[in-house]
């Protein structure tokens, strides 16, 4: 299928993009890499009157350490995360995760901002942002605002962005010495959207977690930072405690039924990933099987 007729506008600056969005309200759509928007338009799932192409705004592309923050511009492409020494040093979880996003052609065009704004609950990058305690930077008619991931993601393809807003960057606290990371997903083929996935960040001291953030994806309508992880902090992790945590995690999840998996299968796979993650991060392989 082909998209319905639309007007194309190439934004010349962030201010110009905001003016175009303000003038057209919910009849406008921002175009970044186009890897989700164009298929959706071709399938006529969305039919904007005007597409505001921000792809030429080079000021929105880049990765930099600024003070104690790693700042990633909205137009930074997936492939940039794979190649960036700053990401490798300060947020290696993102590099590990992005290798699972689609295929090279899509990673060459798709952007971090597009992935966050699109808010597919099966996407890797939003769950990483939850695990890494990111702040999303948005500019709109009222100026700039900073939004925590817990408030940003509101449902399937739903975020705190209004039609007049532009996502301009995401900021991550530097991971700090000794931080440990885990990323794994179940997918039918490498590059497919995940059936269930887990992105995690931990601090470990004296054989115990002193912090543990488990960001699951494809287990509900948005990325989920699991509350159950709290059970494992500042305690000696035993097989019994891990079984209790797995039960609490399964209760917490609210997965969808689709062609790929039932809710019960998704709950089971999430607990398997949680066990693998804890075993890997604590370097105690015996915990994986309980
Ligand atoms: P666009 O397609 O340009 O935009 C997506 C949406 O976000 C649109 O609604 C747009 O208006 C809005 N938007 C974009 N940028 C901004 C902004 N700066 N401010 C406000 N709103 C904005 N993704 C995964 O996570 N995992 C996968 O495994 C995966 N597999 C894929 C497989 C295929 C075959 C395809 C075609 C895509 C796949 N994707 C996958 C999606 C891909 O990663 C997209 O690149 C990403 O979802 C969106 O980024 P984009 O820059 O292309 O955004």
Description:
There is one protein chain. This protein has helices at 14-24, 37-42, 78-83, 85-90, 92-98, 104-109, 112-118, 124-131, 149-152, 239-252, 263-281, and strands at residues 7-10, 28-31, 50-53, 63-66, 69-73, 135-140, 143-148, 153-155, 158-159, 166-173, 180-186, 196-205, 208-217, 224-225. The protein is α+β, with helices and mostly antiparallel strands. The protein has 3 domains: 7-53, Uridine Diphospho-n-acetylenolpyruvylglucosamine Reductase, domain 2 (2-Layer Sandwich); 58-172, Uridine Diphospho-n-acetylenolpyruvylglucosamine Reductase, domain 3; 180-288, Enolase-like, domain 1. Strands 4-5-10-6-7 form a 5-stranded antiparallel sheet. Helix 2 links the parallel strand 2 (28-31) and strand 3. The mean pLDDT is 96. Flavin-adenine dinucleotide binds next to strand 2, helix 2, helix 6, helix 7 and helix 8. Its EC number is 1.5.99.14. GO terms for molecular function: 6-hydroxypseudooxynicotine dehydrogenase activity; FAD binding. This is 6-hydroxypseudooxynicotine dehydrogenase complex subunit alpha.
